[in-house]
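Retro notes, item 3 of 5
We never archived the inputs for the zinc ion complex last cycle. Fixing that now. Sequence and ligand:
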Amino acid sequence: MDIKSFSPPFETNCEKCNQAISITTHFQCAVFVCSGCRESYRFRNNSLINNNSRIDTKDHQEYIPLGAVGKIRKRLYKMIGFAVKKEKGTPYRWREYLLFNPYYGYAFLAEYDGHWTFLEQLIVHPKEVVIKNDFAFDRKWFRFFSDYKSVLVYAQGEFCYDVFKGSESEIRELISPPYILSYERSNEEQMWLYGEHIDEDDIKDAFAIKEDPPEQVGIGICQPMKGSLNYTTLMRLTGIFIGVLVVLQFVMTNLARNEKVLSESFSIRTDSLGNMLPLVSESFEITKAPANLELEFYSSVDNSWMEFSTDAINETTSEHYGFTTAVEYYHGYDGGESWSEGGPAASSVLSHLPKGKYHLNIWPTRGDMRADTFSVSAKTDFPMYSNMFAVAGVILLFPLITYLRRRGFEERRWSNSYYSPYEEE
Ligand SMILES: [Zn+2]
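Structure as it came back at the time:
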C-alpha cells in the first residue's frame, strides 16, 4: 500500500491559535488536540467543536512526529495521535503513539524506558482460559505481569477514542515475551490489545528519524533476550548431538576388540624379616595404540585388605606408568542384619598407552598374614564410556548456561512486577 491511499485530510484552523489542523481519519476522529495551543476539540458532522478545555503542560517531546508515515510489519502507518500517560500514584510515565492505516485501521506504539511495543486491537476478545497465573491465547501461555490505573498526562493530535474520558482506566498486562496482551477498561469502553516487542532501531528506520530513540533502561516488559536460541531449537540441537554421540559410542563399542593380554596368579614372597618382595609379571604386548589397559586384581581377602603398588613398564622405552589398586572386603552381622562392604576384586585403568611390550612390577602390601595369593588379569582395547560422558557433559553445559542466562534475564524483567514468579515468599 502506498501513501497515496491515504485520502486527503479534513483541513481547518485552530480557533484559538489559528494553527493549521488536518484530520486524517475524518469522522472516525473522536477527539482532537491542537499541537500549537493544546486546545481540545470534538469532531462532529465534519466540523470541530471546541471542548473549551485544554491540556496545560507541554513538556513532553514525542519521538515520532505527528503526521510521520512509516512502514511497520509491512504496513504503512501514519502517526496521528500522541499521548503521555502515567501510572496513578507513581511517577512512571510512558508514551503512546496512535497509528492509522486506511485499510487495516489503528495500531499503537507504546514506549516505556526506551522499550517499544507494537500493539493492535483485538476485534474478538480472548476467551479466558486461566490455569494458575497463566492465560492461554494464540497458542501461547501468557503470565499476569501488572495491573494499574493509567492517568492521561498529555495528548496531541487526533484520537479514535475519547482520550479524556478514559483518562483513568484500568489496565492489566500479561506477557509471553516477545508478546504482550493488554486489557484496558474505562467507564466507557473496554479493549484488548495484542502486541509484540519491536526494536527501537526499527522505529527509527521506519519513520526515517535522524535522532536516536530514547535510551533504554533495564529490561522491557516483553523484550526478548538477544543472541539466544529458543528452548525448542536448543533442545532439538542438544538431542541431535547426544544422539550422534550415542551412535558413535555404539560403533566404537562394537569395534573394540576386548583383548585379554595377561592372566597370571602370584604367591606372596617374603624375605627373612617378613617384608613382602616385589613380583614381576610375564610380558604382554599392546599392538594397537594409543590403547587403554584395564588391570583387575583379585585376592580372596576376608575382613581384610591387600594393596598393590604397580608400575607398568614399556620394555622398549623403559617408560613407567604407576598406579595403586586396593582390594578390600569386610562383612559381618550387626543388630540382626548382615552387612558387607567391598569385594575380592578391584581394577585400575590406564589410558593412552603407546604400543609395545610391557610387564608389571607389583609391590603388594596386606592387612593380615592369611591372604598369600592374588591374581592379575589385563585386557586392552575395551570400550570406555568415560569419554562419552565427558563429551555429553560439555554438550549439556550449553543448554544449562543458556537456561541460567535466561533465568537471570527473566528475574531482572520480573523485578518490575508485583507478580514475579522468581520471588518466593
Ligand atoms: Zn491551537
